[in-house]
Design goal:
- The structure is a single chain.
- With about 300 residues, this protein is of the alpha/beta class.
- Helix content is about 35%, strand content about 15%.
- The protein has ten helices and ten strands.
- The strands form three sheets. Strands 3, 4, 5, 7, 8 and 9 form a six-stranded parallel beta sheet that branches. Strands 1-2 form a two-stranded antiparallel ribbon. Strands 6-10 form a two-stranded parallel sheet.
- α2 runs parallel beside α9, α4 packs across α5 and α8 runs parallel beside α9.
- The longest helix is centred in the first third of the chain and has 19 residues.
- The chain starts with a helix and ends in a 5-residue tail after the last strand.
- The N terminus is likely disordered.
Length: about 300
């Protein structure tokens, strides 16, 4: 009898393993001497895992609108620094000659051609812009500023300051300040009165609290519209500390710039902004005063 039960027990154990997937415990049942075995399934161990911490919910930052930059009023006592926000620029060498090329009445599509030349030679210039043109081409003014050029104020729509009221004077100046600030992130520090009018007018000086920038060399490019005539005017009277007047509205002027810039550099001149030149010469630019040159 015992011989017959051993194979039976083994078969039962094997069946248990197949059915339950667990081990079995063999317990003697009844009289142990009979060799009869009860099969009791062994429970599978409980699987336990360490719960992963739940990440804390992050509150997204609340976007806040940046306040609009304030525009300096035309009567403000402090003159804005034209270099605020500019990348570091090489300082002009005071021991070497320098000249400030200036352009009025833009920007225009012709300004791009002039900027191409300045960028090619690492030269700077000053652009006295009018508001009605700046509204059309703000990206050109931004490019000029990014290249290290200076942006000056030439009134909103080229009004003769001696023929308008003090309130309108301030509107003419403040309107351009606002547009330049929007385009470049900084305000003009200099004003060139249209037609050069008002530099000795006490009412103008009292209401336009900026240095008033005139010129040493007037190329008359607006009248001649001739490249060679413009070049001759510059060559004839050029000297260290000169301010050259041109207009970035005409192709002949742009052509003259393509010639005169490398020519002046070859002669040893540094091409700088008005503010750079006066700073290098140690001449302070004061509100309400006018300047034609940076030499005695």
């Amino acid at each position: 009898i015992m011989t017959r039960k051993k194979p039976l027990a083994a078969a039962v154990i094997a069946a248990c393993l197949l059915i339950t997937g667990t081990g079995c415990t063999m317990l003697p049942a009844g009289n142990p001497s009979m060799g009869i075995i009860d099969i009791v399934p062994t429970p599978a161990p409980e699987l336990t895992s360490t719960p992963k911490p739940t990440p804390a919910l992050q509150t997204p930052p609340v976007a806040t609108a940046s306040p609009e930059p304030a525009v300096t009023d035309a009567l403000a006592a402090a003159t804005p620094d034209p270099n605020v926000g500019l990348p570091p620029q090489e300082t002009p060498d005071p021991s070497k000659p320098m000249v400030a090329l200036t352009f009025d009445d833009g920007p225009s599509k012709k300004t791009e051609r002039i900027l191409d030349v300045l960028e090619q030679y690492g030269a700077h210039a000053t652009f006295f812009v009018v508001g009605i043109q700046l509204e059309k081409f703000p990206e050109i003014v931004k490019r000029a500023s990014d290249l290290g050029c200076e942006i000056g104020n030439h009134t909103y729509n080229h009004k003769n300051l001696t023929k308008i009221s003090p309130d309108e004077m301030r509107e003419q100046i403040n309107g351009v300040n606002r547009l330049v600030l929007e385009a470049t992130g900084k305000e003009p520090a200099l004003v060139r009165p249209p037609y050069g009018a008002g530099i000795k007018d006490e009412t103008v000086k009292a209401n336009v609290a900026y240095p008033l920038i005139m010129w040493t060399i007037d190329t008359l490019d607006w009248s001649t519209r001739d490249t060679q005539s413009t070049l001759e005017a510059i060559r004839k009277d050029m000297k260290d500390g000169s301010i050259v007047l041109m207009h970035d509205l005409y192709d002949p002027t742009a052509a003259a710039v393509e010639t005169i810039v490398p020519e002046l550099i070859e002669q040893g001149y540094q091409l700088v902004t008005v503010s750079e030149m006066f700073a290098a010469k140690g001449i302070a630019l004061e509100p309400g005063k006018y300047y034609r040159k940076a030499f005695e």
